């Protein structure tokens, strides 16, 4: 779904709108300039962390300063000593956070996140969550976050899409998801997550 929203794959049916405009009213470059996308498995470009983070602004001919990169690194708990380090030599968790700030460097209006904290320990998971929440609160950044982590969903979500086998089973507020009538698949998943949480 995230690949379709970012126009990496064609849409099978229907249409998309972004901020009141149909997708056909944007060029692909204009559309993608409004959207940041971070995959579960980070992909590092050739070069340093600074090269990676500044890649988006360079592509779209936007100014970007080293100080901006350092600020973003600080927000996600990355040491400034990594600024000029080869990005491909970083740990998986570090690369995941570089991928996130590379997307944020574009100052997107919509941020698409696919299990973006999967490789992180609890501390850095909360750091990343705080960074994204701050952008949402202060800058009005819209976020579509794919996660299987129910506790993370409880901490962050305003509205929830419950998707199984490429089907949307429920779209509701977080409160309604847990308390209102639901499909058997949703009930089973929530029951499993509750039991799994109790065993940890």
Automatic annotation (TrEMBL):
Keywords: Transport. PROSITE patterns: ABC_TRANSPORTER_1, ABC_TRANSPORTER_2. The keyword DNA-binding does not apply. The keyword Transport applies. InterPro entries: ABC_transporter-like_ATP-bd, ABC_transporter-like_CS, P-loop_NTPase. One of its GO terms (molecular function) is ATP hydrolysis activity. Signal peptide: none annotated. Pfam families: ABC_tran. Residues 2-190 form the ABC transporter domain. SUPFAM superfamilies: P-loop containing nucleoside triphosphate hydrolases. This is ABC transporter domain-containing protein.
């Amino acid at each position: 779904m995230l690949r379709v929203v970012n126009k990496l794959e064609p849409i099978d049916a229907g249409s998309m709108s972004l901020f009141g405009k149909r997708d056909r009213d944007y060029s692909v470059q204009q559309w993608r300039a409004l959207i940041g996308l971070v995959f579960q498995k980070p992909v590092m470009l050739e070069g340093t962390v600074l090269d990676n983070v500044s890649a988006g602004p360079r592509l779209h001919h936007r100014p970007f300063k080293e100080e901006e990169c350092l600020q973003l690194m600080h927000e996600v708990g990355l040491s400034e000593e990594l600024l000029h380090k080869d990005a491909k030599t970083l740990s998986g968790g570090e690369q995941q956070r570089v991928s996130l700030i590379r997307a944020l460097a574009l100052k997107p209006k919509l941020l698409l996140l696919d299990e973006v904290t999967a490789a992180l320990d609890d501390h850095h998971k909360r750091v990343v969550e705080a960074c994204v929440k701050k952008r949402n609160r202060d800058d009005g950044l819209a976020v579509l976050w794919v996660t299987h982590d129910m506790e993370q969903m409880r901490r962050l979500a305003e509205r929830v899409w419950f998707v199984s086998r490429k089907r949307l089973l429920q779209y509701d507020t977080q409160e309604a998801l847990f308390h209102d009538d639901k499909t058997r698949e949703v009930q089973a998943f929530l029951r499993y997550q509750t039991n799994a949480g109790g065993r940890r």
